[in-house]
Structures are given as C-alpha cells and as structure tokens.
Amino acid sequence: MNKVFSRSKGLTDVPFTFCPGCTHGIIMRLIAEVLEELDILEETIGVSPVGCAGFSQDFFTCDFVGAAHGRAQAVGTGIKRALPHRTVFTYQGDGDIAAIGTQHAVHVAARGEKITSIMVNNAIYGMTGGQMAPTTLTNMKTSTSPFGRDPQTMGFPMDFPKLLAGIPGAAYVASVSVDSPKNIKKTKDAIRKAFKVQQAGLGFSLVSVLSTCPTNWGLNPSESLKWLRENMMPIYEMGELKVSEEVEKL
Amino acid sequence: MEEKVLLKGNEIIGEAAIRSGCKLFFGYPITPSTEVIEYLSANLPGQGGTVLQAEDEIGAINMCYGAACTGSRVMTASSSPGVSLKQEGLSYSAAVELPMVIVNVNRCGPGLGGLGPAQSDYFQSVKGGGHGDYHLIVLAPSKAQELYDYTMQAFDLADQYRNPVMVLTDGYLGQTMEPVVLKERPPAQEWDRSWIVDGAEGREKRILASYSLTNEIGEANNLYWEAKYKEIQKKEQQWEEFHTEDADYLIVSYGTTGRISKSTVLNARKKGIKLGLIRPITLWPFPVNAFKPFLGKIKGIVTVELNTGQMIEDVKLAVNCGVPVELYRRQGGMLPTETEILEYIEEMIMKTDAKEVQA
Known about the structure:
Order of helices and strands of chain A: HEHEHEHHEEEHHEHEHHEH
Strand content of chain A: 15-25%
Distance between the termini of chain A: 39 Å
Number of domains of chain B: 2
CATH architecture of chain A: 3-Layer(aba) Sandwich
Distance between the termini of chain B: 61 Å
CATH superfamily of chain A: Thiamin diphosphate (ThDP)-binding fold, Pyr/PP domains
Largest sheet of chain A: 7 strands, mixed
Strand content of chain B: 15-25%
Oligomer: heterodimer
Strand order of the largest sheet of chain B: 3-2-4-5-7-6-13
CATH architecture of the largest domain in chain B: 3-Layer(aba) Sandwich
Shape of chain B: globular
Number of strands of chain A: 9
Shape of chain A: globular
Number of helices of chain B: 12
Helix content of chain A: 25-40%
Order of helices and strands of chain B: EHEHEHEHHEHEHEHEEHEEHEEEHEH
CATH topology of chain A: Rossmann fold
CATH topology of the largest domain in chain B: Rossmann fold
Structural class of chain B: alpha/beta
CATH class of the largest domain in chain B: Alpha Beta
CATH superfamily of the largest domain in chain B: Thiamin diphosphate (ThDP)-binding fold, Pyr/PP domains
C-alpha cells in the first residue's frame, strides 16, 4: 500500500500538547514541512520563547535553544552571528514578540538580521490563562481587561507586523492566517518565502500568523475560527506587507 | 613573543579577549566601560571576529547566550546599571551552563550613581544577582597585568566549568593607563563540545533550555548545579598574600583597594606594626581557605571596601566570627589613601590592646 501522507520529518513523534482547536499545531507543521522541503532540517536552529509557543522546542527535529521571555530574537541574533551559514528562526507568541520583546523585534528588523521570525498572534496571553496582550482587540474581554479593553486606559491593539514592515532592514513581512485550507496554503507559501529570504541573505523576514485560543476566548474550535475571521482579520492588515525589491526577484 | 605595551585598563581587557580566542562581543556603551567595546570594534573584526552594538544590555547578554550555545567564545562588558539589566540573561546562562565572560567595570550606585570607582556590586556579583540559585565565577584584578591575565583565565574557567565568569573591575582600573606584558597563553584545553547547538547534522537534535516541567526535574537540576558549584568552591579559590607570615593584623581587600592596601602594609611595617594583606582574587568562590592558617594567631582583620561593607560578611563567615573583623570603607566613587587606612588600623589596634590590658 502506498503511503500518501505522513508526519513531516521536521516533527518529532512527541504528540502536540495544545488545547483542542488551537492552531499552533498547524503552524508548526507548516514550518516543519518547509524546512523538510528546503532540505535544511540539519542546518537549522530554532529559538523557542516563553508561553505556549515555548513547547516548540520539543516538537521539531532540528536543534533548539530556549530563550527567556521576549528574548528569542536577541538569542537568535547571537546564534546567527556565531554561525552565519546556519538557518535560524524564532517561534514566538504575540505577547513575547510585541510586548516584552519589542525592542529586540524592532532592532533585528533595523539591523536586517538574517533570521526568520514566526509570530503567532491569538490576541491573548494563552499559557498564563488569558490575559490582555498588546494585540487584544478593543472591547475584548480578558482576565486583565474583564470589562473589555478600553483604549483610553489600556491602549489600542497594535498591528506589530505593519510596524516592522516600515523598517528598512525588514526584507519580507507577511501577515497570514490558518483559519481555512486556502489560507493555510498561503501561510505555507509565506513561511517558505521567509526562509528563502534568509537563505539568500536579504535581511530580516517575519511571518505573522493569526491563530486561535478557544480555551481563553471561551469559544469552541469552529466558533473560534469564525471569531478570528470576523474580528481579527479586519483589524490586522493581511497579506504581504513588505516585499523588498531583492525579494521580488527571488 | 611577549610584547610590552601601554594601554588603558578597558583596552587591556579587549586585547586579552582577542588573544583568548574570543570571536564575538555584544555590548552597549556605558561609562566607565565603553573603551572595551570601542577597542574591540576597532580590533576584533580584523581578527575574524564580530562586534555588535546591541539595542540595550538585555539584548547584548541574550546575544551572548545565543552565541555561547554554539560553543563560540563570547564576551560582553558593561558597568553597574548596565550589569543590572543583564541579570536575567545571566541567570538563564548559568542555568543552561553557558561559558561566557562578563566584564563589570563597577561604578558607584545605587541608581544612576556616578562614574567613580566602587565595589558596591560585590553582593550582586557573588551572591547570584539574578533570580534562582546560581553562581558566577568572579575574578577581581587589581592592576593592568591582572586585567590581562584574569580575562584570559576567565575564558578558560568558563569553558572548563561551562559557567559564566565575571571579571569585576572598577572605574579606576578601567580608565588608568599602565604598561602590560601581552603574554602568550598556551592554547586552551579542548573541552567537551558534545552539548553545543550548531545544527543537527548527522546526529540527534539537541535542546539547550532551562525549563523544568516537573518539580522533581527542577530539584534534580538544582542538585546537579549545586554539585558543580561545590566542586568550583573546592578547586578554584585564589588569593594573594602580602607580608602575612608573622602578621598580628590582616587587611582583606580586593581590586583597587587591595592594591592601595599594599602600600598601607608597607607603611605599617615601617612603623613596626605587623600588618599583612589577603587579597582575594576569586570573589566567588570566596577564598575561605586563605584564612585557616591565621585562626588563633591574629588579633584582628580589617576589610577595606568601596561600599557599605559587603565582602566583610564573607570574611566573617570565613573566620567563623573567631577574630574581630572591622570595616574601613569609602563610598560614592571616593578612594581611600594608604595613610587613612593605616590611621584607622592604628586606632583599631589601640582599642584591641586596651581590651587585652583590661583582660
């Protein structure tokens, strides 16, 4: 019998430990497939953050370094500068990259650091139990905005990829989603492109992926996908936000 | 070939790093440590190395963390407020057991403080500094040649024990120009590199991280690190003794004040006072073994420090409070003269002798 579908070689046999309906697993699988297809699993070093995304270190078959909260891109910079011919990527949640790690994100982009960052945006702090994140939508209820996020006192949701896209050293920035088969395919294309940008040494690349958190959103998996489409997609600019001239030619 | 040159203290550290095979330096400017990154920016790239001025001290230490994971020799340098920012990264680096060298050119604090020399970061350096139970190995040079020698030794100790090593100097040492012999150091021993992360080419993947999923794993990790720290305490205590053979009284002082205290000892000897000096070279592990031969023989100890009295606690523990231990200190960037230290010791001696007479 022909085997037509199997686990990517980029993933270990450790079962995903995510909540039902969480889309972290889909995103990780896409990255693993891209690394396998580009045949760079043995030359890639991943950097895991703190939070649900931190479990990534157990799921990939490539080498991994665990960073402190928000520091993944600084750690990735250190690895890349030590081993310029290796592929380095960070896998970070929105709180990790866009709140506590903001300075590193801005400056890896400014330096055009030749690493790839995958930002998983579920508009909430998942692992700590659903607190407000920089990406939490206006009026959205979380455990630290129990009456809804009031921009007057809690600020506005931040479109972080858009911010980074405006920085010269960012060669490729895309904002995608894994809410439908079509968008999953687009996400994989964006991830592949981001790694190719790194391989070509063109600068910093970032793929932001809208993701669900059914547990902390208080919705079931299918409601979560619908909620993401109806509430997050209109707020966060989708598509390729930055494609430098060199990247166009790839 | 050995060459004698005249360099500023901070530049000497930079030169020692290059000659130690340091390949990467990540830092952020801060007075009085800035010449380290300036010197390396001018000289390390030409030797095939990399210098990166980071967005902040937090970025710099985490870049060191990443580079150290690949087994490369890496260093950062800063001064007190900047070293405070590095504490999170140092805790993580100790937990993942990463060899790296951190230079703290101590200026006075707390807060922004001032640019003058101080030893007010003693506790932060030797007691942990960041969260959790861990230790850095801490070396304390007192002159130019030692800035050079100890920086080189720091890289070796870091590799040997897979542990961050701090070179704790101060604004006076960092800014002073002195001649230094650029000694060739024998090539470093080849340490086990089977832990590094450099791409899982033809081998199983590796993870370098410090998260313990269960309390049982957490305890096992802590016991493992504790055993390493105990081994370091047993094997790596270093100190210098100066006129201690027949001493009635001892000064204990490190770094700049250790150096000044040598003049105090010589002046005291001229006056017939049997004063000696123990100058700790490793502040962690603290050289407790240095004190054992003197217990029951000496009448008193004075620690000379540039803080409110920090190392004195370790000295009291080392002598198990069996000898009176007093403190002479200056603060806020001020240095004591050899004369004022001696005057203080003479007063102390008069009090001790008076007590003896009463007894």
